[in-house]
Write a structure and sequence with these properties.
With 644 residues, this protein is mostly beta strands.
């Protein structure tokens, strides 16, 4: 049920603050949002099991951030039930951490928050994933130049990714990639559009753009695509442009679409490092067989290096019971001279300013925008604001942390030298270094000047976690994160969260392409982030042997979508900081490499592979036992992909 609907000329927002016992969100990054911005926020209410929309809203206009946590706005709302309304907004609030991660109070729904991230250029991308009102949305805002940009600011070659759900049905959802060549003098130039339509699956459609004019109006570029018999995308569009001209976004003034775009340069742009992302997905792969299009919206972060990506999306779908942190791996090729590269499910373009946009390939429709992280520097004992990651999967810092999870912390001057815990249980002070989470000392596996491995105390219950390093009595800055019940990450071989999972046969040998798992065989998966266990253990202690400590959350697994039976999930016996899942390889899988997926109630990871043979194993009796995986044998800190 909607608590507050935008109505009339004046809307006054109630202050919305995150409620967490004894902890508050870091607001030291509030100055990252300052000045007047253009924004667009698209809302979708799914009304049935087929994915049809019951209501949709487009909210757009200008929003002025104070730099100190409050905002005002001038807003237009186009709603499927109420029509077109506009008016001023006062009383808005926001809280942004040093990392750029935080939340803005919703304009449309009193008490709701839009979570997201802001980069160095002030671009904010996010989504209201935690709403109790059951809607999906995507929010984008970028600074408005002063003076407002004229027509000459829109010039060059642009790639624009868009999705249009204005029809209200997944069968006619349109996903497109638009190429425009504005000349800075009011002409869009010769352009083209490639598109996919929900019910048409992988069939691709094209549309030519010629003789279209644009005008600058209050800092926005306005143009109208002609309504011809063969056109898929038509009508008036409002396009907002960043101060450097490299990023654009917008949509229809009377429609429920969203597009994001980048200006492409003359040479292949670089792509690598940490990015903040948001997007909309509509999975149409079950439309023909089951009559359903599955919608989700998300925000999060991704780390790209050497052609590989590990990313996390805080994702909400009306087809899931609750929001979850979705961790996945991907690969990418070097962008071409126009910044383009593709994966099987999405076409991407990296722009001249480093922003990446993505457009889905049917039947996997959607749009994605990823903006480079801010630059961070610090003196003394310094903990990177984005440098706290899952030690197994390397999931970025936007993934919530869970009790018992093994973390890797990155920074500078974190320790005087490399020191490794000499024995189990792990100590809460090592090499004159302590790590505290909400004031509770965390067990430490190792410390070094740039990297620490520590375990989240089981006492963690607050919704917000504040992490700090204390070295030689000198405290670091505090990094603020959200917490989860679980934050599942599977270890990989080699370490880093990519490639093959740390999965062992019952003999203790590693599952690999040369020694694959058999259908019906039970294997042991080593991971972290399964959360609370019963019976409980002391922080830093080894998993017990006589009475196994099992995860209190329900843990599930599948291999490339085929459910696998779990016979044990809990702490790995005689090992500290590790969990173990015993699962039986299901029938119906072909020989070869498959993604291994493990999930808890609020997290899901699909970042590693498992090799499967085409043969069937003899029956075995799985037990949880001490099988020491390769990841636990290292005498030195485990190398991890360092966020950049």
């Amino acid at each position: 049920m909607k608590l507050t609907k935008f109505a009339g000329i004046l809307l006054v927002l109630l202050t919305a603050a995150w409620q967490a016992p004894a902890q508050t969100w870091d607001t030291s990054g509030n100055s990252l949002l300052k000045g007047t911005y253009y924004f667009r926020d698209i809302y979708y209410d799914v009304s049935d099991g087929s994915g049809d929309l019951g209501e949709a809203s487009a909210l757009y206009g200008t929003i002025t951030f104070s730099g100190t946590g409050t905002y005002t706005a001038n807003v237009t709302l186009y709603d499927s039930s109420a029509g077109l309304e506009s008016g001023p907004v006062t009383g808005g609030t926001y809280s942004i951490a040093a990392s750029g991660y935080g939340f803005i109070s919703s304009i449309l729904y009193t008490g709701d928050l839009i979570y997201g991230l802001v980069n160095q250029q002030g671009i904010f991308v996010g989504s209201a994933t935690e709403t109790a009102n059951g809607y999906n949305d995507m929010f984008v805002a970028a600074p408005l130049s002063s003076p407002a940009p004229a027509a000459g600011a829109f010039k060059g070659s642009y790639s624009i990714a868009g999705i249009d759900l204005s029809s209200g049905s997944p069968t006619t959802t349109i996903n497109y990639l638009l190429q425009l060549n504005p000349d800075g003098a009011g002409n869009l130039g010769t352009g083209s559009l490639t598109a996919y339509v929900g019910q048409e699956g992988a069939n691709k459609y094209t549309q030519s753009i010629t003789s279209v004019k644009y005008v600058a109006s209050n800092g926005a570029m306005v143009f109208t695509l002609p309504n011809t018999a063969s056109a898929l995308i038509t009508g008036q569009k409002f396009l907002y442009i960043s101060p450097d001209g490299n990023f654009v976004f917008g949509g229809s003034p009377e429609g429920w679409d969203m597009f994001v775009g980048v200006r492409t340069g003359s040479g292949a742009p670089s792509f690598g490092g940490l990015y903040y992302q948001a997007g909309i997905d509509q999975d149409e792969s079950q439309l023909e067989t089951a009559g359903v299009g599955i919608l989700d919206t998300y925000y999060g972060a991704l780390s790209a290096s050497g052609g590989n990506i590990v990313g996390t999306q805080r994702l909400f779908s009306p087809f899931n019971a609750n929001p979850l942190d979705f961790t996945s791996s991907d690969s990418y090729s070097t962008p071409s001279s126009n910044g383009a590269y593709s994966t099987p499910s999405m076409n991407y373009v990296v722009g001249a300013g480093g922003v990446r946009i993505g457009s889905g390939i049917g039947p996997f429709l959607g749009i994605n925008v990823a903006v480079p992280e801010p630059n961070f520097t610090g003196s003394g004992v310094y903990l990177n604001p984005t440098g706290i990651v899952n030690a197994a999967s390397s999931a970025p810092f936007t993934a919530g942390i869970a009790p018992g999870e093994l973390l890797t912390l990155y920074g500078t001057n974190l320790a005087d030298s490399l020191v490794i815990a000499p024995a189990i249980p792990f100590p809460i002070a090592l090499g004159n270094v302590q790590v505290t989470i909400n004031g509770v000392a965390a067990p430490i596996y190792y410390v070094s000047p740039t990297q620490i491995s520590a375990i989240v105390p089981y006492e963690l219950t607050a919704a917000i976690a504040q992490v700090q390093v204390i070295t030689d009595g000198n405290p670091s800055n505090t990094v603020t994160m959200f917490t989860n019940t679980t934050s599942v990450g599977v270890f990989s071989v080699p370490p880093g969260g990519l490639g093959y999972g740390a999965v062992l046969h019952q003999s203790g040998l590693l599952v690999s392409p040369a020694n694959p798992a058999q259908i019906g065989e039970t294997v042991s998966v080593y991971l972290t982030g399964l959360g609370a266990v019963s019976p409980g253990i002391a922080d830093g202690a080894a998993g017990p042997v006589s009475t196994l400590s099992q995860a209190t959350s329900t843990i599930t697994a599948d291999i490339d979508g085929t459910a696998a039976t779990i016979t044990y999930s809990g702490l790995a016996p005689q090992l500290a900081g590790l969990y173990q899942v015993n699962l039986t390889v299901p029938s119906g899988l072909t020989a070869g490499d498959h993604f291994l997926d493990i999930s808890g109630p609020d997290s899901y990871t699909t970042e590693v592979l498992i090799s499967i043979s085409g043969t069937t194993a003899a029956a075995n009796s799985p037990v949880a036992r001490r099988i020491v995986p390769h990841i636990a044998k290292s005498a030195t800190p485990l190398p991890k992909r360092k966020p950049r």
